[in-house]
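Query structure, 115 C-alpha cells:
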C-alpha cells in the first residue's frame, strides 16, 4: 500500500526487521550494505518499507531489482519512490508486484531504466 506521495504506508525500523527475519541487527546492516534490502531515513531513523519483508525473508526479487535501479543511477530515495509509484499497467506498484507473478515484469522495467 502507498499513500499519494509514492511512499509506503507502513515502515519498519531496523530492530523490527531483525526480529522479523530472526537475525542479529548486524546482519540487517549487512543486508543493507550488500544491496539486498533498502532503507531510508524518516524522522532521523533508518526505516524499511514493511512490504519488502515477507514473513521471515526479504522479498525474493528485491535484491535484483535494487541492483538494476542502482545501475540505472537511482539513489535509495529514488528507488523507494519508483517502487511505490502506482503503475496501472502492472497494476498497483512495482513493490506490490514483487510478491506475485508480475515480479519478472518489474525486473524487466527496472532493467529498461538503465537504457
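Result returned for the query:
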Amino acid at each position: 500500500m502507498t499513500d499519494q506521495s509514492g511512499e509506503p504506508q507502513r515502515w519498519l525500523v531496523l530492530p523490527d526487521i531483525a526480529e522479523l527475519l530472526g537475525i542479529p541487527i548486524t546482519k540487517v546492516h549487512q543486508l543493507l550494505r550488500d544491496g539486498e534490502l533498502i532503507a531510508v531515513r524518516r524522522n532521523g531513523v533508518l526505516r524499511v518499507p514493511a512490504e519488502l519483508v515477507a514473513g521471515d525473508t526479504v522479498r525474493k526479487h528485491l535484491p535484483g531489482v535494487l541492483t538494476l535501479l542502482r545501475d540505472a543511477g537511482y539513489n535509495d530515495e529514488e528507488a523507494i519512490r519508483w517502487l511505490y509509484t502506482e503503475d496501472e499497467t502492472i497494476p498497483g506498484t512495482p513493490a506490490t508486484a514483487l510478491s506475485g507473478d508480475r515480479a519478472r515484469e518489474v525486473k524487466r522495467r527496472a532493467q529498461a531504466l538503465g537504457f
